Protein backbone atom coordinates (compact mmCIF):
# COMPACT_ATOMS: atom_id res chain seq x y z
CA UNK A 1 0.00 0.00 0.00
CA UNK A 2 1.21 3.50 -0.82
CA UNK A 3 2.58 5.52 2.10
CA UNK A 4 2.49 9.34 2.28
CA UNK A 5 5.86 10.99 1.77
CA UNK A 6 5.30 14.53 3.07
CA UNK A 7 4.02 16.11 6.26
CA UNK A 8 0.89 17.51 4.65
CA UNK A 9 0.07 14.14 3.07
CA UNK A 10 0.40 12.45 6.44
CA UNK A 11 -1.85 15.01 8.12
CA UNK A 12 -4.53 14.67 5.44
CA UNK A 13 -4.56 10.89 5.82
CA UNK A 14 -4.54 11.10 9.62
CA UNK A 15 -7.51 13.49 9.63
CA UNK A 16 -9.59 11.33 7.28
CA UNK A 17 -8.59 8.10 9.04
CA UNK A 18 -9.50 9.53 12.45
CA UNK A 19 -12.79 10.86 11.10
CA UNK A 20 -13.60 7.44 9.64
CA UNK A 21 -12.80 5.56 12.87
CA UNK A 22 -14.81 7.93 15.09
CA UNK A 23 -17.75 8.03 12.69
CA UNK A 24 -17.85 4.25 12.33
CA UNK A 25 -17.74 3.82 16.11
CA UNK A 26 -20.59 6.28 16.71
CA UNK A 27 -22.71 4.98 13.83
CA UNK A 28 -22.31 1.38 15.02
CA UNK A 29 -23.37 2.48 18.51
CA UNK A 30 -26.49 4.14 17.05
CA UNK A 31 -27.25 1.09 14.92
CA UNK A 32 -26.89 -1.31 17.87
CA UNK A 33 -29.16 0.82 20.05
CA UNK A 34 -31.68 1.00 17.21
CA UNK A 35 -31.69 -2.77 16.79
CA UNK A 36 -32.13 -3.29 20.54
CA UNK A 37 -35.01 -0.78 20.60
CA UNK A 38 -37.11 -2.12 17.73
CA UNK A 39 -38.97 -5.42 17.68
CA UNK A 40 -38.98 -8.11 15.00
CA UNK A 41 -42.25 -6.75 13.60
CA UNK A 42 -40.48 -3.54 12.52
CA UNK A 43 -39.54 -5.31 9.27
CA UNK A 44 -43.17 -4.86 8.20
CA UNK A 45 -42.57 -1.13 7.60
CA UNK A 46 -39.96 0.50 5.32
CA UNK A 47 -38.49 2.57 8.16
CA UNK A 48 -36.77 -0.59 9.41
CA UNK A 49 -34.50 -0.42 6.36
CA UNK A 50 -34.12 3.34 5.94
CA UNK A 51 -32.35 4.04 9.26
CA UNK A 52 -29.67 1.29 8.89
CA UNK A 53 -29.17 2.22 5.22
CA UNK A 54 -28.64 5.89 6.06
CA UNK A 55 -26.13 4.97 8.76
CA UNK A 56 -24.32 2.63 6.39
CA UNK A 57 -24.08 5.23 3.62
CA UNK A 58 -22.30 7.69 5.92
CA UNK A 59 -19.94 4.99 7.17
CA UNK A 60 -19.03 3.99 3.63
CA UNK A 61 -18.61 7.65 2.64
CA UNK A 62 -15.99 8.25 5.35
CA UNK A 63 -14.10 5.05 4.50
CA UNK A 64 -14.25 5.74 0.77
CA UNK A 65 -12.95 9.30 1.24
CA UNK A 66 -9.91 7.95 3.07
CA UNK A 67 -9.26 5.48 0.23
CA UNK A 68 -9.64 8.27 -2.33
CA UNK A 69 -7.21 10.44 -0.36
CA UNK A 70 -4.54 7.73 -0.46
CA UNK A 71 -5.17 7.33 -4.18
CA UNK A 72 -5.03 11.11 -4.75
CA UNK A 73 -1.66 11.58 -3.04
CA UNK A 74 -0.28 8.48 -4.75
CA UNK A 75 -1.19 9.84 -8.21
CA UNK A 76 -0.68 13.53 -7.30
CA UNK A 77 -4.22 14.27 -8.54
CA UNK A 78 -5.29 17.78 -7.58
CA UNK A 79 -8.78 17.33 -9.06
CA UNK A 80 -9.38 14.31 -6.85
CA UNK A 81 -8.16 16.24 -3.81
CA UNK A 82 -10.70 19.00 -4.43
CA UNK A 83 -13.39 16.35 -4.96
CA UNK A 84 -12.56 14.91 -1.55
CA UNK A 85 -13.14 18.36 -0.04
CA UNK A 86 -16.56 18.56 -1.68
CA UNK A 87 -17.42 14.99 -0.63
CA UNK A 88 -16.45 15.65 2.98
CA UNK A 89 -18.59 18.79 3.08
CA UNK A 90 -21.45 16.72 1.63
CA UNK A 91 -20.85 14.14 4.38
CA UNK A 92 -21.21 16.92 6.95
CA UNK A 93 -24.49 18.07 5.37
CA UNK A 94 -25.66 14.46 5.22
CA UNK A 95 -24.86 13.99 8.93
CA UNK A 96 -27.04 17.00 9.77
CA UNK A 97 -29.84 15.57 7.63
CA UNK A 98 -29.36 12.22 9.35
CA UNK A 99 -29.73 13.90 12.73
CA UNK A 100 -33.08 15.38 11.68
CA UNK A 101 -34.27 12.14 10.04
CA UNK A 102 -33.37 9.90 13.00
CA UNK A 103 -34.93 12.34 15.46
CA UNK A 104 -38.21 12.52 13.51
CA UNK A 105 -38.35 8.74 13.02
CA UNK A 106 -37.60 7.77 16.60
CA UNK A 107 -39.94 10.40 18.07
CA UNK A 108 -42.77 9.35 15.76
CA UNK A 109 -42.32 5.69 16.64
CA UNK A 110 -42.24 6.51 20.35
CA UNK A 111 -45.39 8.64 20.14
CA UNK A 112 -47.19 5.74 18.44
CA UNK A 113 -45.64 3.07 20.65
CA UNK A 114 -48.98 1.68 21.84
CA UNK A 115 -50.28 1.05 18.35
CA UNK A 116 -50.66 -2.41 16.85
CA UNK A 117 -48.46 -4.19 16.02
CA UNK A 118 -45.84 -3.23 18.61
CA UNK A 119 -42.80 -1.98 16.69
CA UNK A 120 -40.51 -0.78 19.50
CA UNK A 121 -39.64 -1.25 23.15
CA UNK A 122 -42.34 0.83 24.84
CA UNK A 123 -40.41 1.11 28.13
CA UNK A 124 -37.81 3.59 26.90
CA UNK A 125 -37.33 6.47 24.49
CA UNK A 126 -34.36 5.90 22.19
CA UNK A 127 -33.75 9.47 21.04
CA UNK A 128 -32.28 10.90 24.28
CA UNK A 129 -29.78 8.04 24.31
CA UNK A 130 -28.50 8.41 20.76
CA UNK A 131 -28.81 12.18 20.43
CA UNK A 132 -25.27 12.91 21.77
CA UNK A 133 -23.83 10.43 19.25
CA UNK A 134 -25.73 12.05 16.39
CA UNK A 135 -24.44 15.48 17.42
CA UNK A 136 -20.87 14.18 17.65
CA UNK A 137 -21.08 12.71 14.14
CA UNK A 138 -22.05 16.12 12.75
CA UNK A 139 -19.32 17.88 14.77
CA UNK A 140 -16.63 15.40 13.69
CA UNK A 141 -17.51 15.58 9.98
CA UNK A 142 -17.77 19.39 10.15
CA UNK A 143 -14.39 19.79 11.85
CA UNK A 144 -12.92 17.19 9.50
CA UNK A 145 -14.13 19.21 6.50
CA UNK A 146 -12.31 22.33 7.73
CA UNK A 147 -9.06 20.44 8.31
CA UNK A 148 -9.28 18.54 5.02
CA UNK A 149 -9.81 21.75 3.02
CA UNK A 150 -6.77 23.33 4.72
CA UNK A 151 -4.43 20.44 3.96
CA UNK A 152 -5.77 20.02 0.42
CA UNK A 153 -4.92 23.67 -0.26
CA UNK A 154 -1.34 23.12 0.90
CA UNK A 155 -1.01 19.92 -1.13
CA UNK A 156 -2.45 21.65 -4.18
CA UNK A 157 0.47 24.08 -4.17
CA UNK A 158 2.97 21.21 -3.99
CA UNK A 159 1.30 19.07 -6.65
CA UNK A 160 0.86 21.99 -9.06
CA UNK A 161 4.63 22.34 -9.29
CA UNK A 162 5.09 18.59 -9.62
CA UNK A 163 2.62 18.44 -12.51
CA UNK A 164 4.13 21.57 -14.09
CA UNK A 165 7.53 19.90 -14.27
CA UNK A 166 5.99 16.67 -15.57
CA UNK A 167 4.30 18.40 -18.53
CA UNK A 168 7.47 20.42 -19.19
CA UNK A 169 5.57 23.68 -18.74
CA UNK A 170 3.22 23.05 -21.69
CA UNK A 171 -0.23 24.52 -21.06
CA UNK A 172 -1.70 22.48 -23.95
CA UNK A 173 -0.40 19.23 -22.48
CA UNK A 174 -1.67 20.29 -19.06
CA UNK A 175 -5.19 20.81 -20.43
CA UNK A 176 -5.13 17.39 -22.05
CA UNK A 177 -3.90 15.79 -18.87
CA UNK A 178 -6.61 17.59 -16.90
CA UNK A 179 -9.30 15.63 -18.76
CA UNK A 180 -7.53 12.42 -17.75
CA UNK A 181 -7.54 13.49 -14.09
CA UNK A 182 -11.22 14.46 -14.28
CA UNK A 183 -12.03 11.08 -15.84
CA UNK A 184 -10.40 9.28 -12.90
CA UNK A 185 -12.36 11.37 -10.42
CA UNK A 186 -15.69 10.89 -12.18
CA UNK A 187 -15.60 7.10 -12.36
CA UNK A 188 -14.50 6.81 -8.72
CA UNK A 189 -17.30 9.07 -7.51
CA UNK A 190 -19.74 7.29 -9.82
CA UNK A 191 -19.04 3.98 -8.08
CA UNK A 192 -19.89 5.46 -4.69
CA UNK A 193 -23.19 7.02 -5.77
CA UNK A 194 -24.14 3.93 -7.79
CA UNK A 195 -23.51 1.72 -4.76
CA UNK A 196 -25.64 4.02 -2.58
CA UNK A 197 -28.48 3.94 -5.11
CA UNK A 198 -28.42 0.16 -5.61
CA UNK A 199 -28.50 -0.57 -1.87
CA UNK A 200 -31.44 1.76 -1.30
CA UNK A 201 -33.32 0.69 -4.42
CA UNK A 202 -32.85 -3.03 -3.80
CA UNK A 203 -33.68 -3.13 -0.09
CA UNK A 204 -36.52 -0.60 -0.05
CA UNK A 205 -38.20 -0.68 -3.47
CA UNK A 206 -37.34 -4.12 -4.91
CA UNK A 207 -37.44 -5.60 -1.38
CA UNK A 208 -35.89 -9.00 -2.19
CA UNK A 209 -38.17 -9.73 -5.16
CA UNK A 210 -36.44 -12.14 -7.52
CA UNK A 211 -34.90 -12.13 -10.06
CA UNK A 212 -34.58 -8.32 -10.00
CA UNK A 213 -32.98 -8.29 -6.55
CA UNK A 214 -30.11 -10.62 -7.50
CA UNK A 215 -29.56 -9.05 -10.91
CA UNK A 216 -29.43 -5.58 -9.39
CA UNK A 217 -26.97 -6.66 -6.70
CA UNK A 218 -24.71 -8.08 -9.41
CA UNK A 219 -24.30 -4.54 -10.70
CA UNK A 220 -22.05 -3.75 -7.72
CA UNK A 221 -19.16 -6.15 -8.54
CA UNK A 222 -19.60 -5.46 -12.26
CA UNK A 223 -19.38 -1.69 -11.69
CA UNK A 224 -16.26 -2.18 -9.54
CA UNK A 225 -14.57 -4.28 -12.22
CA UNK A 226 -15.51 -1.78 -14.94
CA UNK A 227 -14.07 1.05 -12.82
CA UNK A 228 -10.73 -0.73 -12.33
CA UNK A 229 -10.62 -1.81 -15.97
CA UNK A 230 -11.38 1.74 -17.12
CA UNK A 231 -8.55 3.18 -15.02
CA UNK A 232 -6.11 0.58 -16.34
CA UNK A 233 -7.21 0.96 -19.97
CA UNK A 234 -6.89 4.77 -20.00
CA UNK A 235 -3.56 4.72 -18.16
CA UNK A 236 -2.14 2.19 -20.64
CA UNK A 237 -3.97 3.74 -23.61
CA UNK A 238 -5.85 0.60 -24.70
CA UNK A 239 -8.37 2.11 -27.12
CA UNK A 240 -10.37 -1.08 -27.75
CA UNK A 241 -10.90 -1.68 -24.03
CA UNK A 242 -11.85 1.97 -23.48
CA UNK A 243 -14.50 1.71 -26.21
CA UNK A 244 -15.92 -1.32 -24.39
CA UNK A 245 -15.99 0.73 -21.18
CA UNK A 246 -17.95 3.47 -22.97
CA UNK A 247 -20.50 0.86 -24.12
CA UNK A 248 -20.84 -0.34 -20.51
CA UNK A 249 -21.47 3.22 -19.32
CA UNK A 250 -24.08 3.74 -22.04
CA UNK A 251 -25.85 0.63 -20.79
CA UNK A 252 -25.65 1.93 -17.22
CA UNK A 253 -27.08 5.26 -18.36
CA UNK A 254 -30.07 3.52 -19.94
CA UNK A 255 -30.64 1.51 -16.76
CA UNK A 256 -30.50 4.55 -14.50
CA UNK A 257 -32.90 6.55 -16.66
CA UNK A 258 -35.38 3.65 -16.61
CA UNK A 259 -35.16 3.43 -12.80
CA UNK A 260 -35.76 7.18 -12.46
CA UNK A 261 -38.89 6.90 -14.62
CA UNK A 262 -40.17 4.00 -12.50
CA UNK A 263 -39.42 5.68 -9.17
CA UNK A 264 -41.07 8.96 -10.16
CA UNK A 265 -44.38 7.15 -10.50
CA UNK A 266 -43.93 4.95 -7.41
CA UNK A 267 -45.09 5.44 -3.83
CA UNK A 268 -42.23 4.20 -1.66
CA UNK A 269 -40.25 5.27 1.38
CA UNK A 270 -36.95 7.01 0.68
CA UNK A 271 -38.06 7.93 -2.84
CA UNK A 272 -36.44 11.39 -2.78
CA UNK A 273 -33.07 10.05 -1.66
CA UNK A 274 -33.11 7.28 -4.28
CA UNK A 275 -33.96 9.79 -7.01
CA UNK A 276 -31.15 12.05 -5.80
CA UNK A 277 -28.55 9.26 -5.96
CA UNK A 278 -29.82 8.08 -9.35
CA UNK A 279 -29.79 11.62 -10.79
CA UNK A 280 -26.22 12.21 -9.60
CA UNK A 281 -25.24 8.88 -11.17
CA UNK A 282 -26.75 9.98 -14.49
CA UNK A 283 -24.81 13.26 -14.47
CA UNK A 284 -21.55 11.54 -13.50
CA UNK A 285 -22.05 8.85 -16.16
CA UNK A 286 -22.64 11.41 -18.92
CA UNK A 287 -19.59 13.39 -17.84
CA UNK A 288 -17.47 10.21 -17.60
CA UNK A 289 -18.46 9.17 -21.16
CA UNK A 290 -17.51 12.62 -22.46
CA UNK A 291 -14.13 12.62 -20.67
CA UNK A 292 -13.44 9.08 -21.87
CA UNK A 293 -13.95 10.13 -25.49
CA UNK A 294 -11.60 13.09 -24.98
CA UNK A 295 -9.01 10.78 -23.40
CA UNK A 296 -9.14 8.48 -26.44
CA UNK A 297 -8.47 11.47 -28.70
CA UNK A 298 -5.46 12.37 -26.53
CA UNK A 299 -3.86 8.91 -26.62
CA UNK A 300 -0.23 8.72 -27.77
CA UNK A 301 0.44 12.29 -26.62
CA UNK A 302 2.74 11.65 -23.69
CA UNK A 303 0.39 10.62 -20.86
CA UNK A 304 2.43 7.52 -20.03
CA UNK A 305 5.57 9.61 -19.66
CA UNK A 306 3.76 12.16 -17.48
CA UNK A 307 2.45 9.45 -15.14
CA UNK A 308 5.94 7.98 -14.75
CA UNK A 309 7.62 11.33 -14.21
CA UNK A 310 5.11 12.69 -11.70
CA UNK A 311 6.15 10.34 -8.93
CA UNK A 312 9.81 10.97 -9.68
CA UNK A 313 9.37 14.74 -9.42
CA UNK A 314 7.28 14.32 -6.29
CA UNK A 315 10.00 12.33 -4.54
CA UNK A 316 12.52 14.92 -5.67
CA UNK A 317 10.36 17.68 -4.20
CA UNK A 318 10.10 15.95 -0.82
CA UNK A 319 13.80 15.22 -0.43
CA UNK A 320 14.55 18.52 1.37
CA UNK A 321 13.81 18.76 5.11
CA UNK A 322 10.85 20.94 5.98
CA UNK A 323 8.98 19.68 2.91
CA UNK A 324 10.05 22.64 0.75
CA UNK A 325 9.89 22.35 -3.00
CA UNK A 326 13.26 21.75 -4.63
CA UNK A 327 14.74 23.66 -7.47
CA UNK A 328 14.32 21.86 -10.78
CA UNK A 329 17.16 20.00 -12.42
CA UNK A 330 19.66 21.68 -14.70
CA UNK A 331 17.87 20.41 -17.79
CA UNK A 332 14.75 22.32 -16.79
CA UNK A 333 14.92 25.93 -15.67
CA UNK A 334 12.19 27.15 -13.35
CA UNK A 335 10.36 30.32 -14.41
CA UNK A 336 10.57 33.36 -12.18
CA UNK A 337 6.83 33.25 -11.40
CA UNK A 338 5.04 29.94 -11.07
CA UNK A 339 1.70 30.01 -12.92
CA UNK A 340 -1.54 28.82 -11.40
CA UNK A 341 -2.28 25.41 -12.89
CA UNK A 342 -5.51 24.26 -11.23
From TrEMBL:
InterPro entries reported for this sequence: UPF0658_Golgi (IPR040410)
Q: Does the keyword Transmembrane helix apply?
A: yes
Q: Which UniProt keywords apply?
A: Membrane, Transmembrane, Transmembrane helix
Q: Which domain of life is it from?
A: Eukaryota
GO CC, sorted alphabetically, is: Golgi apparatus
Keyword Lipoprotein listed: no
Q: Which residues cross the membrane?
A: 12-32, 47-67, 79-100, 135-156, 177-201, 213-234, 241-262, 274-296
PANTHER family, per database record? UPF0658 GOLGI APPARATUS MEMBRANE PROTEIN C1952.10C-RELATED
This protein's name: Uncharacterized protein
